[in-house]
Amino acid sequence: MSKVVGIILSAFCVITILTAAAPEAGGDEAVFDEDSVWSHYFVARSDQRKNIEREAREWEEPMFGYPPADWHEPDFDDSGWGVSTSPFPEGSNRWGYGHRASGAGSILLRNRFHITDASAADLRLNVAYRGGIVVYLNGREIARKHLVEPGDEEAAADSDADVFDLPAEEYPFEAWYTPDREPIDWEVDDDVEGEMREHLTKYRIRRVEDLELPADALRQGVNVLAIQLNAAPRPDTRHFLRNHGWGQVRRDWSRLGLVEARLDCRRGAAEEGTGDAGEVFIGAMNPLQEIDEQSVAAMRHRPEQTLQLIGPRGGYASAPLAVLGDMSLPAPQVHVGVLSSDSGDVLPADAVSVLYGSMHHRDSFGADDGHSTETHHILSAQPTDTAKLHSAWIEVKIPRDAAPGLYSGQAVVSTEQAERSVPVELHIGRFRMPAAADTVGFIEMLHNPENTALRYEKELWSDEHFELLGQVFDRLGSIGSDVLHIPMAMNNHLGTSQTMVRWQKQGDSYRPDLSIVERYLRLYDRRCGQP
User: Fold this and answer.
1) Could you tell me the pTM of the whole model?
2) Residues contacting residue 509 through CB under 8 Å, at least 6 positions apart
3) What residues pair up with 122 in beta bridges, in sequence order?
4) 237-253: string of b/e by CB count within 10 Å (b at 16+)?
5) What band does 161 get if pLDDT is binned at 50, 70 and 90?
């Protein structure tokens, strides 16, 4: 599977990984804990089920094929994978209730840690999970539990495809029923205590306990711990459907997930990451990943990455850089040098632009608990003010006559504390995008002109406001937007405080002043084309 597909899968499978177990007595130092950020990847395939005769239906082939065979190797490039922390799946609890990992047969996880003296290190791993597990250290399998043993020994050869085709062991009857043989309530939460908590822990949570990482598999410097989880099959419907007066209620739960994972260092020195994070991180980001402190912090633990852009001739390509400090930093400056190919082709300087991100506070839709997220969604031509996190999007408008191929260059990011050159690669395909005016389709990008005035603090319908609207129309025209909205009423669903039409008293009646509408339409026609 190509890295491009891996990136796409990461976008559709927004998942999380870990909650840490409580530290053991004895003063062990946690290398991984509840704040650890892991790289993750879904292997999408249909759920394996048992029919009423207890016969298992075979798994279908993964929808997007198997991942690369070297996914667990230390030098594998996982920059296209998603990154996140606990819990897994996002919104679920330790018992598998909530958001379920439906549509996934396996979950792949990777994390890095740095050892200063491999010969002196004593590292122990504890994992609690649902399903079955395989653990790899620097590409070498060091543990396997709760996976169905293959019947044919020849088919059990040590190959990744065979491991992916092994479902986890089926869960027992008690995983769906209380000690009194009553169906376990669907909405069981983490606050459950006493006998019920013990029951759920015993029958739903599986563990790898106190696993010593073999010394001969450790390496001086950066090491990679990789975990593969395979889903357990779903039993026949008698175990998870219950009749009510208005129909049947599903009582299924996620039989695939990572509940707890902790790596302790009992002797020697080890730390999460690559050991060279520094006070200021400057580096490339996955364009499909939210840009927030968590995702950027995860990049500290990865080797240096190249900023990769992909696009067709006549199209656009973009990807972000990020700057993260231990405390607030002044706004950085980003300069992208010449992008040229091995054959000597050079992109024009005006094809490359830099847009700076600023923090956007977004409340969760419909949330009553005040939950919110902060991500870099607002882009502008100038850097933002002092902040702990900064981002910059490198955008390339690829000329229609550009020669296909690989173009390389450098992006120089400068702050008061540091300066770094980040390698840039632009892959231009052979396909040539048709001009927006030559396409047939329907693209309705809803634009409220009043928002532009508010965002840049300009007087509504002033010359400065219309100059900014021209830039908006340039962008709408580049994507072929076909619809133009003209606010004709105040206080509509867009929140406009004024209408474009001004009514002037004339005798006993009123006549409309359409001068703003006419100027607006002329500008749109000139910069975007006829709607």
Assistant:
1) 0.71
2) none
3) 267
4) eebbeeeeeeeeeebbb
5) low
Q: What is the pLDDT of residues 250-302, one digit of tens each?
A: 567 889 999 989 999 988 888 887 776 667 888 888 887 778 777 787 777 67
According to the model, what pLDDT value does residue 272 have? 83
- Closest by Cα among 222, 56, 69, 228 to 147: 228
Given a contact cutoff of 8 angstroms between Cβ atoms, the answer to whether 123 and 263 are in contact is yes
106 forms bridges with which residues in the sheet? 43, 230
> Which residue from 210, 9, 235, 30 is spatially nearest to 127, judged by alpha carbons?
210
Q: Which helix (H) or strand (E) holds 521?
A: helix 515-527
Q: Are 89 and 16 within 8 A, CB to CB?
A: yes
DSSP line for 185-200:
PTT--TT--HHHHHHH
State the chain's mean pLDDT as an integer: 80
The amino acid present at 203, given as its one-letter code, is: Y
Strands (E), 85-205: 104-115, 122-130, 132-137, 140-145
30 Cβ neighbours under 8 A, 6+ residues apart: 20, 23, 262, 263, 264, 265
Residue with tokens 């509509």: 492
Structure-token pair, residue 280: 């200021």
Model confidence at 157: pLDDT above 90: no
E strands, 342-464, are 352-363, 372-380, 387-397, 405-414, 419-432
pLDDT in tens, 32-88: 877 788 888 888 887 666 554 555 556 677 877 888 999 999 999 887 788 777 667
How many angstroms separate the CA atoms of 356 and 388, rounded?
Answer: 14
Taking each helix axis as running N to C, give the angle between helix 463-478 and helix 515-527, from 0 to 180 degrees, rounded to the nearest 10.
40
What is the distance of C-alpha 333 from the center of its chain?
26
Tokens read off for 242: 């219950």
Euclidean distance between CA atoms 138 and 514, whole angstroms = 70
Alpha-carbon Rg for the chain in angstroms: 28
Q: Taking the C-alpha atoms of 21, 27, 29 and 33 in order, what is their torsion angle to the nearest 10 degrees?
A: 20
Q: Are 527 and 470 in contact (CB under 8 A)?
A: yes
Number of Cβ atoms within 10 Å of the Cβ of 372: 10
Query: Do residues 248 and 158 make contact, with C-beta atoms less than 8 angstroms apart?
Result: no
Tell me how far apart the alpha carbons of residues 66 and 389 are, in angstroms, rounded to a whole number. Answer: 36
With beta carbons less than 8 A apart as the criterion, state whether 184 and 176 touch. yes
Dihedral class, residue 474 (left if φ above 0, else alpha if ψ from -120 to 50, else beta): alpha
In this structure, what token pair is assigned to residue 185?
């309530």
